[in-house]
Amino acid sequence: MVKTIIAGNWKLNKTAGEAKSFIDDLKAQVDADVDADVVVIPPALFVADAVERTQDSALKVGAQNCYSEDSGAFTGETSPAALSDLGVDYVVLGHSERREIFKETDEEINAKVKAALDNKLTPILCVGETLEQREANEYVAFITEQLKAALKGLDANDISQVVFAYEPIWAIGTGKTASAQDAEEVCAEIRQVIAELTSEDVAKEASILYGGSVKAANAKEILSQDNINGVLVGGASLEVDSFTGIIDAVK
Ligand code: PEP
């Protein structure tokens, strides 16, 4: 069975107090038998507390980023080994904000994916095109290259541990959602690339998420697509009501 994942990326939002009360409220609302991994992804400062607070619940915790080395003279970075030791399950890598604002390269993302896997963290590897690339009909080729670069040097067993997220940049935080058909087309292409790099069996089992202005109103249609196994949510994951509205779409 392919795992369904509903992940909420808070980005740089919430104070410690807001993070605590959000998790406590969400915990109270998410059924223990929900048929999905529901993942909260707070800023790094609140990850340790989130892990403790979610221990007796259906919720899992992710980090928004990690470094490619476990330790050393890397001021300001977050160790994947330390995240794993805390009990973190997931780490978002290659988010378009990391690529665009912080100039992360494909090589760095590839090194981070390897470091995450070495530490038994599940990478949520984000790929996605700009509006110009979509309009020039270059998006499939571009996403294929992003995937191959991020997975370079990994074997089929490594790739089987990775979760994928298709996040068209033009749909992130803009209110513009890709149509369910457009999202499905690219997620099917991603599955095809995974099959080429591994095997049909590994590709069939891969969790592929869509992200970009997902909300309760469009989650059901997105989640009903054959090749979409979950969603990565930004803005609508910041309020308990809007996030639980999306989680309810799994039922
Ligand atoms: C994201 O940041 O990964 C994202 C999908 O954001 P939003 O849902 O706000 O578009």
Task: List key phrases describing it.
binds phosphoenolpyruvate; 251 residues; TIM Barrel; alpha/beta; 12 helices; eight-stranded parallel beta barrel
Descriptive account of the structure:
This protein is α/β, with parallel strands linked by helices. It has one domain (4-250): TIM Barrel (Alpha-Beta Barrel). Helix content is 43%, strand content 15%. It contains 12 helices and 8 strands. It has helices at 16-29, 47-53, 80-86, 96-100, 106-118, 131-135, 139-150, 156-159, 180-197, 200-205, 216-223, 240-248; strands spanning 5-9, 37-41, 59-63, 90-93, 122-127, 163-166, 208-211, 230-233. The protein has an 8-stranded parallel β-barrel, surrounded by 6 helices. Strand 3 (59-63), helix 3 (80-86) and strand 4 form a beta-alpha-beta unit. Helix 11 runs parallel beside helix 12 (240-248). The longest helix has 18 residues, at 180-197. The mean pLDDT is 97. It binds phosphoenolpyruvate (PEP). Phosphoenolpyruvate binds next to strand 8.
Summarize the structure.
The protein has twelve helices and eight strands.
Small molecules in complex: phosphoenolpyruvate
Just give the CATH class. Answer: Alpha Beta
The helix/strand series, from N terminus to C terminus, equals EHEHEHEHHEHHHEHHEHEH
Q: What count of helical segments does DSSP give?
A: 12
Q: Which percent range fits the helix content?
A: 40-55%
CATH topology: TIM Barrel
CATH homologous superfamily classification = Aldolase class I
Strand content: 5-15%
Give the total of domains: 1
Uncertain regions spanning at least 5 consecutive residues? none
Span between termini: 16 Å
Subunit structure: Homodimer.
Subcellular location: Cytoplasm
EC number: 5.3.1.1
Pfam families: TIM (PF00121)
